[in-house]
Design goal:
Among the domains are: about 200 residues, FAD/NAD(P)-binding domain; about 50 residues, no CATH class. The chain contains eleven helices and 18 strands. A hairpin with a 2-residue loop joins strand 17 and strand 18. Helix 7 runs antiparallel to helix 8.
């Protein structure tokens, strides 16, 4: 075996938002931390570019505070289809939308401020329990955090690749130089999928399309969303079109001895929930607590707890996508009972614990579904 040329207390493989957040949290916990990634910042990716209130709270713990000078606030969620519009505001909080590249740059700057060592254009070619082979040299570690995405090679090499994928869809993203006409994230529903619209600045929006139909592309799909097509059909999009696979995937374990998985390498939830970034930031804080305790089994338990509610909401929303009749009934019921939708949004964002959602409200919403 090669002898290690250097060693980091915490080595993070992957310099996207999940990896940088984990690195910052570990550094704030007092560890010596290095990040390696084969890319060069800023790193872009197809996503909805919205950060929900829980994610913003986690970001503040990492030392990053967003405001309307650098990001676009949104105060709730709207569900829209050809027949109904249901909308609700967050309880006393806001979310923010911003370009993925701008967010990545903020995370890079914060990592540098805290003293994280950043190694870009560093290619990983091997893994042992003691170290990584990076650019042909062996680098040791006490703890390894694998944040190399949903197709993580390190997850497989670490023997943590046993899991199940329950949903596979395709996402596409575009930006439009249009002033936001709304104060919320709009999720437009059709039989072919969803388009969700997020303000990312005072004069720009992000539109993400998520579908089960692999061959369906953005231009052809837009016409199937009448309200959105009316606003954007004659507007030229920016030339930064990106696509990605979005999955609902869960693994039996996200840690083994001195190796932990983070971000989409540790599992994923369909993009329609808008919770991807929030999950990554909350996982980072939980992982730092486990490192401080010297026991990654604590992270395993926290990871399951953090994902429980988003997975439930993802299952509900994917059922609405899979069964158009159910979706139409559900949106009609939510539009007819704004208080129920507001409480569901509180549940989605963590402002309302699942146990407090209430049997009476659940029965009332069920009746609305049956009567719709």
């Amino acid at each position: 075996m090669l002898e290690a040329k250097g060693k980091s207390e915490v080595l993070v493989a992957g310099g996207g938002p999940a990896g940088l957040a984990a690195a910052i949290a570990a550094r704030q916990a007092g560890f010596d931390v290095a990040v390696v990634d084969c890319a060069q910042p800023p790193i872009d990716k197809a996503c909805g570019e919205g950060i929900m209130p829980e994610g913003l709270a986690a970001l503040r713990e990492l030392g990053i505070t967003l405001n309307s000078a650098i990001a676009a606030p949104f105060r709730g969620i709207s569900f829209v289809d050809e027949h109904s519009r249901a909308e609700a505001a967050f309880s006393h909080v806001v979310g923010y939308g911003m370009r993925r590249t701008a967010l990545h740059q903020l995370l890079v700057q914060r990592a540098e401020e805290t003293g994280v060592s950043l190694r870009w254009k560093a290619r990983i070619t091997g893994l042992t329990r003691q170290g990584l082979c990076i650019n042909g040299q062996f680098t040791g570690y006490r703890w390894l955090i694998c944040a190399d995405g949903q197709n993580s090679r390190l997850r497989r090499l670490a023997g943590l690749d046993h899991g199940r994928c329950t949903s596979r869809r395709y996402g596409f993203r575009r930006h439009y130089k249009v002033a936001p006409w709304f104060g919320q994230v709009e999720v437009h529903w059709a039989d072919c999928g969803q388009m969700y619209v997020t303000p990312v600045s005072q004069d720009e929006i992000c539109v993400a399309f998520v579908t089960r139909h692999r061959q369906l592309r953005f231009d052809h799909a837009l016409a199937r969303f009448p309200a959105l097509h009316e606003r954007l059909g004659n507007v030229a999009p920016e030339k930064d079109y990106l696509g990605a696979l979005t999955t609902t995937r869960e693994f039996g374990r996200v840690q083994s001895q001195n190796i932990a998985l983070a971000g989409e390498a540790s599992g994923s939830i369909d993009a329609v929930t808008g919770q991807g970034l929030s999950l990554a930031f909350r996982q980072a804080l939980a992982l730092a607590d486990a490192l401080r305790a010297g026991d990654l089994r604590e992270y395993q338990a926290a990871h399951r707890r953090i994902a429980r509610r988003p997975r439930l909401m993802s299952a509900l929303m994917l059922a609405m996508d899979r069964y158009p009749a159910l979706r139409r009934r559900a949106l009609h019921a939510l539009a007819s009972d704004p208080a129920a939708f507001a409480r569901m949004l509180d549940l989605h964002t963590g402002a309302l614990p699942l146990r407090e959602f209430g049997l009476r409200l659940g029965i009332a919403l069920g009746w609305q579904l049956l009567a719709a």
